[in-house]
Amino acid sequence: ASVGQRLIDSTARSLTRQGLESLDRIVQARLQPAPAEGASAGEPVPEVTPPSTAEVGLNVARDVAADVAADVAQRLEVRIGLRELVVIGVALLAIRWMWRRLFGGD
59: Cβ–Cβ under 8 A, 6 or more apart, which residues? Predict the structure, then answer.
């Protein structure tokens, strides 16, 4: 996928995660046990304050940065793996060449 598509996917995942976490906090607040017998029956349900726009933006930026860092790390691992294969291949060719020089055949 292109870089733009990955950024869109990361942002969508982050916003979805944050929305579900907010919904979970609201549901948990409403599921709190009923007030004690001495308390008035008309007490309002505890309110959950929604995150500010700055908090949401900061969390999205953090999640996107983590996804990009993971992608870069994965690409580096692939490059390191390819480099190791090339080194092993060259070493095998060198061993074969030396074998032929020393013993005159395969």
Answer: 14, 18, 51
- The model's pLDDT over 39-55, given as tens digits with 9 standing for 90+, comes to 555 656 567 788 888 88
Provide, rounded to the nearest whole percent, the portion of the chain with pLDDT above 90: 17
Whether the predicted pLDDT of 36 surpasses 80: no
The answer to whether the beta carbons of residues 70 and 9 sit under 8 Å apart is no
- The pLDDT of residue 44: 63
Q: How would you class 63 by CB atoms within 10 Å of its CB: exposed for 0-12, middle for 13-18, buried for 19 or more?
A: middle
Q: Residue 18, class by beta-carbon neighbours within 10 Å (0-12 exposed, 13-18 middle, 19+ buried)?
A: middle
The alpha helices in the chain, defined as continuous H runs, are 3-30, 53-103
Among candidate residues 10, 7, 48, the one with its CA nearest the CA of residue 29: 48
Separation of alpha carbons 1 and 67, rounded Å: 13
Cα-to-chain-centroid distance, residue 68: 8
